[in-house]
Specification:
Strand order of the largest sheet: 8-7-6-9-10-11-12
Number of strands: 12
Low-confidence stretches: 363-372
Mean pLDDT: 88
Number of helices: 16
CATH topology of the largest domain: Rossmann fold
Structural class: alpha/beta
Strand content: 5-15%
Number of domains: 3
Length: about 400
């Protein structure tokens, strides 16, 4: 039976609806022995060991590098539980014919809610006020309003749009920078599209909602922070690699930025010696933006659905990152079966065996003086062996490429 490895910590201890979905589709379910495997702290060798005996992985934050992917010939599908795939080398996966899928409609609202939780925590001083009251103080420090403020959204995809809707509901003016905006959505919610510099200079809150890639890595650096409106706040629920934390530290300590809300970090898991944690004008959380209970369930279901569809040679449109594999995609064992069916050794050897057998029978029953039917028998044997060799080579190639045996 095909096997699927489920690595996200939130999906391991729960028998959610994704489990019976996969079982009914004929998959056996595996989990890593170390529940922290998905945090990306394992060596490539350990990652290879954990994933070596599965046909698909519902992945969390483990690193799937070219080295790892090349060493997993049995792996057929990488189904990310979430929308980010910066820890998966998509080029290597494509080279090996492995679709990389995401769960595009599962967690965008959860991330948007987390972004606003950070906005509220900073504007209303939730963390500092909580600590004061717990220590016996009753200091009524002035907090900041959210209504009437300008929210700048960098990236107007599903998460950005969900954040924009919530900003408008809070009475905020919403600006957005987006290369391919949904014009209908922009018009419906009264969002102003601006360039990046205008977004930085005009926004009271800048919220990052774009993927981490070569263009966005380290984008929010000293130069960008200097362009931000004095006293503004940075919110990051996307990926930590987009923010240069040392430069953010300087901007916060100087007072140019009044605060920051961070759910993601340059190095994850973040450690207690991170200098940012010494500041009292930031609020942090451990990359849980897209991980509320409902979103986790939806991500499990969507990821499982992608695996099941691909195993049935159905393409989960809109969920595959390397969509160029669509035309050539076949579940590997389906391809092996088709190769075997294209080989005619199932029927042909029988025919040639009958031919050879008939020659031998005729020879045994021949008159004592009758000749041995050498020519026709040799021709029959030669045809049989040539056909057998050709088909066996084809299947050996298939088995080599598709990791026989599958268990």
């Amino acid at each position: 039976m095909p096997a699927v490895m489920i690595t996200p910590e939130a999906l391991i201890a729960v028998r959610g609806p994704w489990i019976p979905m996969l079982e009914e589709a004929g998959f056996t379910i595996q989990h890593p022995d170390d529940t922290t495997f998905t945090r990306g702290l394992c060596s490539p060798a350990e990652t290879i060991r954990v994933l070596s005996n599965v046909d698909a992985v519902i992945a969390g934050g483990e690193y799937l590098t070219p080295e790892v992917i090349a060493a997993l010939p049995r792996l057929q599908v990488i189904a990310r539980s979430g929308v980010g795939y910066d820890r998966v080398n998509v080029s290597a996966a494509t080279k090996h014919g492995i679709p990389v899928t995401i769960t595009p409609t599962a967690n965008h609202e959860s991330v948007a809610e987390t972004a606003f939780a950070l906005v509220f925590a900073i504007a209303k001083g939730i963390v500092t006020n909580d600590a004061c009251v717990r220590s016996g103080q009753w200091a009524k420090n002035q907090t900041q309003p959210i209504r009437g403020k300008i929210l700048g959204i960098f990236g107007l995809g599903r998460i950005g749009r969900s954040t924009a809707i919530r900003g408008r509901a809070m009475g905020m003016t919403v600006l957005a920078t987006e290369t391919y905006p949904d014009k209908q959505f922009v018009a419906q919610y009264g969002i102003e599209l601006v360039d990046f510099d205008a977004l930085l200079s005009r926004s009271d809150y800048v919220s990052i909602h774009c993927p981490l890639n070569a263009e966005t890595a380290g984008l929010f650096n000293h130069a960008v922070f200097q362009k931000m409106k004095p006293g503004s706040v940075l919110i990051n629920t996307a990926r930590g690699g987009m923010v240069v934390e040392a430069d953010l530290m300087d901007a916060l300590k100087s007072g140019h930025l009044s605060g920051a809300g961070l759910d993601v970090f340059e190095q994850e898991p973040a450690t207690s010696d991170n200098p940012l944690f010494q500041l009292d004008n930031i609020v942090v959380s451990p990359h849980v933006g897209g991980g509320d209970k409902l979103s986790q369930e939806n991500m499990g279901i969507e990821a499982a659905d992608c695996v099941i569809k691909l195993s049935r040679n159905q393409w989960p449109a809109g969920a595959v990152v390397n969509d160029e594999l669509r035309q050539s995609w076949k579940w590997k064992w389906q391809r092996l079966i088709e190769t075997a069916l294209r080989c005619d050794w199932v029927t042909t050897p029988t025919g040639w065996a009958v031919t050879v057998g008939s020659k031998l029978w005729n020879w045994c029953m021949r008159p004592a003086t009758g000749p041995w039917p050498w020519p026709s028998t040799i021709i029959a044997l030669t045809r049989f062996l040539m056909r057998f060799r050709r088909n066996w080579i084809a299947c050996k190639i298939a088995l080599r490429d598709w990791a026989w045996p599958p268990w």
